[in-house]
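Table S5 (text form). Sequence records supplied for joint modeling of the two-component complex.
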Amino acid sequence: MAEKIKRPKARNYKGFKDTFAEDIILRRKMIETIRVICERYGFSPLETPAIEYVDCLGKFLPEEHTPEGGIFSFKNPDLSEATRADHPDWWLGLRYDLTAPLARVVAQNQDLPKPFRRYQLGQVWRYEKPGPGRYREFYQFDFDTVGATSMIADAESCAMTCDILEALGFVRGDYLIQVNDRKALQGALECAGLSEVDITDESSQVGVALRAIDKLDRIGRAGVTELLGKGRKDASGDFTEGANFNTKQIDVILAYLDARSDSRTEVCNRLEALVADSKIGCEGVEELRQIDGFLTDLGYGSDRVRFEPTVVRGLGYYTGPVFEGVITKEIVDEKGKTRNFGSVFGGGRYDTLVQRFTGQKTPATGGSVGVDRLLAAMRLLQADTALPTCTTEVLITVMDKSRLTDYLQLLQKVRAAGINSEVFVGSGSIGKQLQYADRRGIPLVIIAGSDEFDNGEYQIKDLELGRRLAADISDRDEWLKGRPSQQTVAADSLIEKLNELLADYRSK
Amino acid sequence: MAEKIKRPKARNYKGFKDTFAEDIILRRKMIETIRVICERYGFSPLETPAIEYVDCLGKFLPEEHTPEGGIFSFKNPDLSEATRADHPDWWLGLRYDLTAPLARVVAQNQDLPKPFRRYQLGQVWRYEKPGPGRYREFYQFDFDTVGATSMIADAESCAMTCDILEALGFVRGDYLIQVNDRKALQGALECAGLSEVDITDESSQVGVALRAIDKLDRIGRAGVTELLGKGRKDASGDFTEGANFNTKQIDVILAYLDARSDSRTEVCNRLEALVADSKIGCEGVEELRQIDGFLTDLGYGSDRVRFEPTVVRGLGYYTGPVFEGVITKEIVDEKGKTRNFGSVFGGGRYDTLVQRFTGQKTPATGGSVGVDRLLAAMRLLQADTALPTCTTEVLITVMDKSRLTDYLQLLQKVRAAGINSEVFVGSGSIGKQLQYADRRGIPLVIIAGSDEFDNGEYQIKDLELGRRLAADISDRDEWLKGRPSQQTVAADSLIEKLNELLADYRSK
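The corresponding C-alpha cell record, covering 1016 residues in total, follows.
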C-alpha cells in the first residue's frame, strides 16, 4: 500500500523575506557608496558573529513590541541541561544591533589601537511584531569611533551623514541632520527640580519623559504635555501613564523643546540660559558649541546640520550628543496624507557601553544608517534611481540543437568581451525563450540558426527598447523610437554593436 | 553598603570569531571577483533569511561531528508551549547551507522565470565541533541553475570555476576541476550485483560505500578496500564497520575507481565498458560525454577539467554529475608534511531537492565556493596577495589644539581629493599619534604645527616606507631606499605629493 508522503510547505518564517535581483542591485550600489565614504573618513571594516552570549548583548532595546526582550534567544547546545541555568554561557542570542557587539569587541581586545574607528554592515534580528515594511531581519550600516572624547568625532558623524545622503542623490535642502545633547536635556530636568537624574535609566520618571518627547512628531505638543503630566488617552481609548511632573517642571521642559532656531549659536544661547544652574547642563551646551564650531570649520552650515532640542533618540545608552538624519522632502503616504519621510539615520555618544564589561569609562560615539529606510526613501523620492533590474545583459537563444558548438563558441566570445550573457539552457520554443528574457528583464537577445551561423551574421533583438517605449514615450526617450527593435549584425561587428546598444542600459 | 557589580566577561561564543580590517579587505576583493564572473555567466543575485523553518531546511548534512543534526535550532517563540510539538512551525533553525533555502524559494515561487540562475553569498551556521580553522559560522558563495536538464549548465559550473580561480591569481596547472557522475557510479554498483540502488540514501550499504570512497585521499586504496568489505581499524584502534560487499563486488568498485585517465574520452570509454549492463550507468556515462563535448566547445581542456571516478562528494542529495575544484599545488602543512592544498569548491546536480516540497521533479545543478578555504589557499600560495591592510591612507596628527580649525580645513581638503584620511581624534603626544598610525598600518602621516600652517607647508612622514624596508630589503624594493622617510611639502602641491606617495601602496 502506497504511503502518503508528507511534504513540507515551502514558506518563509513570519517577518522574514527573500530578496531578489532588482532590490539587491539597488541596495548593493547604495551600500558601496556608503562604504567608500566611510573609508574616506578613516573608518575600517569589522565583522562580528551573528550569535553572541546574551549577557554580552545586554538589553538596550526600547520595550515596545518586544516580548522576550526583543531578541531571538536559545539555550547553548554545548551545555547539558544539568548545567545551572544561571551559568553565564547558558543563553545565546542573535545580535539585535551592531553597537553591543562593538562594545564587546573593544572590551575583549584591549590592545586595539585607539581611537578605534570601525564601520560594519550586517544583518540584525529583532523578535518584534512584524508589520507592513517592518521585518524581523534587516541590515544596519554602523560607524563608530571608540576612545575619543573629542567632539570632532561627533561633528564628523554629522558631516559624513550629509556626504552620504548627497552621494546617494539627495539634494541639499531635502534632508537635515538634527542634533541635541542628552546632558543639556538632563540639565533642563535638573533645573526643573529633579535631583540625581540618570538619563540612561529607561524605567525612571526621566525615561518616561524622554519617551514622551520622542513622540512629539506623532502626538504634538499637547500630547507631550499630557504625557509629562498625569498621562494621556489616545484615539483608541488606551491610557498611557504619564511622568507625573508638576506644572512648573513641565514648563521648563517645554521651554527646552521650544528653544529651536535655524541658528545653531542661537539654540546654544537659549539652552544655556535655561540650564545655567546645572553643571551637567552647561557641559552639554558646551559640547553643542564645540560641535557647531567643528562643523563650521568643516564647511557644514545650518542648512545641513541643525540643533533640534526635541530630538532624544530611543536607545537608553546615549550619554551626550544625539543625532538624527531626516529626509525633509514631503511624500504622500499610503493614506494619501502629505508628510515628511522621516528618519533614515540615528546615532550619538555612549560613553558607558564598554564600561559594562570593563568597569572603565570608554568614550564612544557613532551612528547607524537605516539601510532599508534609506532605500525606501530613494525609491520614493528619486525618479532616476532606476538601475538595471537584471545583471544578465544578453541571452543567446537556441533554435537548432545540432549547432550547440556554435552557440557555445559565440557565448564564449561574448563573455570574453566582458558582456554578462547566457545561452538558454532550459527547454522550449524560441517564443518561450524570448518570454524568459523578457520576464527576467534581460535587455538584448541574440537569435541565430543554421543560416546565420553559415552566413556569419546574427539577429539582435532589443527587448529593453520595447520595455522603455511601453513604459514612457516622453520627450527624453524620443530618440529611442529611432532604434530598430531587431537588426542583423555581421559576426565581426557583433561585440561593438552589443556594447553600443547596452551603453544606455548600463548607465541607467 | 556598596554591592559588587557583576560584569559580563567580553567573549566570543565557542566556534565564532570577529574579523578585522585586513582579512575583510582581502575577502571583499575575492568575493567581488567571484561576483563579477558569476554575473558574466548570467547568474543573478538572491538573498534568503538566516532563519528558516527546520522542516524547510531538511537534513542533508553528513552525520559526523553533528550532534543535534548539525544545525542551530530553537523553538518558534510565536507559538505557545501548549502548541503541539509536532506542529510544522514549531522548530526554527539557522540555515546550514544556501542550497536548501534555494530549493524552498523555487518551490514557493512557482512563477519564477526558468531556468532560474542565481548566485548567493551568505553566512551559514553549523553546530559542529569547532577546531583549528574550523568555525561554526562561515561564508558560502553558491551559484545554481534550476530548471535545466541540459548538461551545458553542468559544464558551465566547471568552466566558471576555472575562470574564478584564474581571476583570483591561480595559474593554470595549479588547480584542477574533477568531475564524476553519481549515475555512472550507481551503474557500477548495480553491475556489482546490487539491485535497487538508491544513491541518495546515506544510511544504506551504498551510502557506506560512498563515504568509504570519499576517504580515498586520506586512507588510500587499501583502506577503502577494507571499508568496502568487513571494516577497518584506524591508527587509534577505532573500528569502522564496513559496507560488507563481497570480493567480486569490491573488485568492480575498485575497477571503477581505477578508471582515471588524463583523457576525458578515455575515462568515458573505460566507465562505459564497466557499466554497459546498467541503464542508469550508461545514462551517467552519456552525461559525462556531453559535458566533455560542451567543455571542449567552450575551450576547457583536460589540463583544467578532468574526469575523476574517485570523486563522490559528501552530500546525499546529488543525483548526477558531481564536481570538485582542487588546488593541486603542493603546500607544507602544519606537521611539515608536503601535501596538496585540496578542495576549495564543490557541487553537482540535484534533481530531487525541490521535489521534497512540490512532488515534482525539478532539475537543478550548481556549486559552492568555500570562501574561507579559498582565502587560505590564496594566502598560502600567492606571495603577491598582499593588499593594503588598512583602508585609511593618511593620518593628520594634531600638535597644536589652538589650530583645530586649520587641521579640519586641511582634512576636508585631503578628503575632497578622494584620499581616505582622518585627523587624530584621541588624546596623546605626537609620539603616541605616530604609534597609532603605525599600529593601524596607515601609510602616510601629515605633521603640522603653527609654524607649518603660517608658512603654508606640511611635513609628510612615510610610515609605509619604513615598514617595507624593515620587512624586505630585496632587489625589487631597492628603489624604495631612495625615498625620503620624511619630507616638507608646500600646501599647493600637497595633494599631488600624497597621491604620488600612495600610488605604490594602492596598487598592492
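Note: Chain A touches chain B through 104 residues (CB under 8 Å).
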